[in-house]
Amino acid sequence: LAPLRFRNDMSGETVLITAGGTREALDPVRFLGNRSSGKMGYALAEAAQRRGARVILISAPTALQPPSGCEIVPVTTTGEMRAAVLARLPEASLIIKAAAVADYRPRIREEQKMKRTGPLTIDFEPTEDILAEVAARKTPGVLVIGFAAETENAIAHGRDKLLRKGADAIVLNDVSREGIGFDSDRNAATFLTRNTAIDMPEMTKRELAHRILDEVLVLRRPRLV
Ligand code: CTP
Ligand code: CA
């Protein structure tokens, strides 16, 4: 029996979703990246598509099967993800930034494989903050949802990110919790807006994707009280 939410409650929306972890090459065989399976972003893409949205999934490398019915734009680096997001931004009514973006890139990418000759110091420069850029450019009616991975003081750091980046909401993951998050099929989150914090207890990433979209739709169409 299809849950009620599988009715087309997202038809008319074009959802731009980023997923996976971007990678910054150090040399032809090594990169700086971070722990992200892409599962949460792909679950969101599939959920939105099932609910009638058109989905553009801008994906950094993952080991996952692409969800059917979504347009997939493969990228590797943060620079490529930024370019793809900005290029597709005019089409989007909802942007969900589930990707784990590499925060730094090596200032120099070595042409040849670096040899292991002793201690190594690498000079890194920060990457662009795609979420902040997207939020700064958004037009009325467009919603921007970010993610935040925190290991301590999760709510305080999450609210700070929400305000600093100008997102409409942040899906906050406390990544210090054992057994959920990262490679797991399960996750828990807090959906933070400027003035609310909605606790989403541990469930499958598929279920969590739908819960997140439910709250996004509440932002879109505030409940009448
Ligand atoms: N993000 C982004 N561009 C970056 C870094 C992060 O768009 N260069 C986005 C992520 O996709 C996510 C949100 O910002 O939606 C928060 O990511 P997070 O890593 O938690 O925040 P940072 O601002 O990078 O802060 P820090 O890693 O220092 O905690
Ligand atoms: Ca970061």
Automatic annotation (TrEMBL):
Record bears the keyword Metal-binding: yes
Positions of region (Phosphopantothenate--cysteine ligase): 15-225
Any one biological process term the GO annotation gives: pantothenate catabolic process
GO CC terms in record: phosphopantothenoylcysteine decarboxylase complex
Catalytic activity: N-[(R)-4-phosphopantothenoyl]-L-cysteine + H(+) = (R)-4'-phosphopantetheine + CO2; (R)-4'-phosphopantothenate + L-cysteine + CTP = N-[(R)-4-phosphopantothenoyl]-L-cysteine + CMP + diphosphate + H(+)
Keyword hit for Phosphoprotein: no
Keywords on record: Decarboxylase, Flavoprotein, FMN, Ligase, Lyase, Magnesium, Metal-binding, Multifunctional enzyme
Domain DNA/pantothenate metabolism flavoprotein C-terminal: 10-217
Pathway in which the depicted protein is active: Cofactor biosynthesis; coenzyme A biosynthesis; CoA from (R)-pantothenate: step 2/5; Cofactor biosynthesis; coenzyme A biosynthesis; CoA from (R)-pantothenate: step 3/5
Function: Catalyzes two sequential steps in the biosynthesis of coenzyme A. In the first step cysteine is conjugated to 4'-phosphopantothenate to form 4-phosphopantothenoylcysteine. In the second step the latter compound is decarboxylated to form 4'-phosphopantotheine.
Similarity comment: In the C-terminal section; belongs to the PPC synthetase family.
Name of the molecule in the record: Coenzyme A biosynthesis bifunctional protein CoaBC
Encoding gene (name): coaBC
